[in-house]
């Protein structure tokens, strides 16, 4: 579900769930570990809280806390550094009364064995795709240290997606060196005497992990020296491949779940974490959705109408606008003309009629609920968060073009399609690439305008159009819904 259509108070509540949730006390964390493993944290992870040099160490204070779980750093006795994700004890009870429409998904999201399966599956898919294997990384999961409510994975030193300065500022970490721990780069600089690069064994310390910010330089003002365009292109490539090529989609790609690292080659690498919430698209629906996206960008209204009719949608224009996150200009324009007519009425009458039109429009989108694919709700969530990520980074890429290109490409490359259909799709793909040239013209126009400080980026322009359209429908879209 798009939380953007909820009242502002609820939108704020959902945005806080990403990263700023209260932490459980250590005693609650310890109870979960004991209940799942039948052992203490010291026994499960081989750590000591009393400074024993023969054991590993673990932080009692979480490094991150979200609505479902919190993450603790640990160094095992064999030297491996891990992220221990522990589910909050109250979650099992909360799910019983949580949003009923998403009950099944929430149960899966809180099953960390399911998350481990998703993580390993995604790692295999990325490794098998030459266009992504050197640009995306999925952390290793340690099954022997995991359960239904505890998941232990490789610790990642990276920069969060929301830290634009740290991503783009000049690199000061050394020649042919990458982010700590990235592709052979040591976690800590060799022969360093700095206490900030050594693991503390003080049993009273709340933070034991070294800071590892030497790559920022002596004044701490350095960064990864990476291009936001390359970072964002990789992100859209990854989620488009999931959506159109593989049919398994990560539904929570907010900035807290994406790390950026610098490889020793100087190229960016995206690290995707939190694999609890995925949807699986069957082959027919995946091909259908790819054709739908391709049709949106070529204004093939007959194809759009035929496809969405199978989903129970009776107003293709509104649904197309919601998918693209911009007003769709290729339909019969009846929706747009209706709202233009409202502008001639007084404010009270206009608001009343807009509300009535909104209710009618929603009923049309959900015309026949028995045909509505539930996957579309979670696909919409992914698209909206990725759009917000691109907007937050200044719209460095043409998101719609990249997504549409993957949709068209998937209809050529999919092994599930017969050869004759692939050949037809290949010819259409070449024509499709020519059509997308017009999208590039608009994108570069907005980049020039942005450079001259005459306006925002492409995503800002598209969102302003959508907010105007939504306001006409009586819906208040907030700008920062998924930016936290």
Automatic annotation (TrEMBL):
InterPro entries: ABC1_dom (IPR004147), ADCK1_dom (IPR045307), Kinase-like_dom_sf (IPR011009), Mito_struct-func_regulator (IPR051130)
Compositionally biased residues, Polar residues: 191-207
Entry superkingdom: Eukaryota
Annotated segments matching region Disordered: 173-214
SUPFAM superfamilies, alphabetized: Protein kinase-like (PK-like)
Annotated Pfam families: ABC1 (PF03109)
ABC1 atypical kinase-like domain span: 17-100, 102-306
Similarity annotation: Belongs to the protein kinase superfamily. ADCK protein kinase family.
Entry protein name: Unnamed protein product
């Amino acid at each position: 579900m798009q939380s953007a259509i909820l009242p502002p108070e609820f939108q704020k509540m959902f945005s806080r769930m990403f990263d700023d949730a209260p932490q459980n006390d250590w005693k609650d964390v310890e109870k979960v570990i004991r209940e799942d493993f039948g052992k203490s944290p010291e026994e499960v992870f081989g750590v000591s809280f009393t400074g024993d040099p023969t054991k590993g160490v673990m932080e009692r204070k979480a490094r991150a806390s979200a609505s479902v779980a919190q993450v603790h750093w640990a160094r095992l006795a064999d030297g491996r550094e891990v992220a221990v994700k522990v589910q909050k004890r109250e979650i099992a009870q909360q799910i019983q009364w949580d949003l009923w429409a998403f009950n099944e998904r929430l149960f899966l999201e809180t099953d960390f064995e399911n998350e481990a399966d998703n993580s390993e599956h995604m790692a295999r898919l990325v490794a098998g795709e030459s266009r992504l294997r050197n640009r995306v990384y999925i952390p290793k999961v340690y099954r022997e240290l995991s359960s239904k409510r505890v998941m232990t994975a490789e610790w990642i030193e990276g920069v969060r997606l929301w830290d634009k300065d740290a991503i783009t500022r000049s690199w000061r970490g050394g020649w042919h060196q990458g982010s700590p721990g990235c592709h052979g780069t040591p976690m800590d600089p060799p022969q360093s005497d700095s206490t900030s690069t050594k693991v503390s064994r003080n049993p009273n310390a709340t933070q034991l992990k070294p800071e590892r910010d030497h790559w920022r330089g002596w004044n701490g003002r350095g960064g990864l020296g990476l291009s936001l365009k390359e970072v964002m292109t990789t992100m859209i490539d990854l989620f488009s491949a999931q959506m159109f090529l593989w049919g398994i989609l990560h539904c929570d790609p907010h900035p807290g779940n994406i790390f950026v690292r610098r490889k020793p080659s100087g190229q960016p690498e995206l690290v995707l974490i939190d694999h609890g919430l995925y949807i699986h698209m069957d082959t027919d629906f995946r091909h259908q959705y790819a054709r739908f996206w391709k049709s949106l960008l070529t204004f093939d209204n007959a194809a759009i109408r035929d496809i969405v009719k199978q989903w129970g949608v009776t107003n293709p224009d509104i649904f197309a606008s919601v998918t693209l996150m911009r007003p769709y200009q290729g339909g019969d324009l009846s929706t747009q003309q209706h709202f233009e007519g409202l502008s001639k009425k007084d404010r009270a009458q206009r608001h009343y009629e807009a509300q009535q039109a909104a209710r009618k429009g929603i009923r049309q989108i959900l015309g026949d609920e028995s045909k509505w694919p539930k996957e579309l709700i979670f696909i919409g969530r992914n698209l909206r968060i990725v759009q917000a990520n691109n907007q937050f980074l200044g719209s460095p890429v043409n998101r719609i073009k990249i997504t549409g290109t993957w949709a068209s490409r998937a209809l050529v490359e999919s092994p599930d399609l017969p050869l004759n259909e692939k050949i037809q799709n290949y010819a259409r793909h070449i024509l499709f690439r020519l059509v997308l040239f017009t999208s590039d013209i608009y994108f570069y126009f907005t980049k020039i305008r942005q450079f001259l400080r005459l306006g925002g980026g492409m995503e800002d322009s598209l969102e302003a159009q959508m907010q105007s359209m939504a306001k006409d429908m009586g819906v208040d879209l907030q700008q920062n819904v998924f930016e936290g």
